[in-house]
Write a structure and sequence with these properties.
Length: 82
Amino acid sequence: MTAILFALAVVALVVYGLERNHRRQPHLGSRLAGGTDTEDRDLPRVTADLRAVTARSTARHRGAAPRRPVGAVRSIHPARSA
């Protein structure tokens, strides 16, 4: 019971401190810094990247030989027997 009351007191003090700090901040107009008339190029870049990856992966799988599994180890020297 004491732990619960202590935790509630800590939460209440944190909320009080955050609210007090928030109210002391001056509100200087809009929160946006700079203009909003810029072009967003993220979507064209992502679509171009995805198209390039799919084109490369389909070209690789058409005439490619099967690959070894990732865990396969290829040794240059034969294993020595005791």
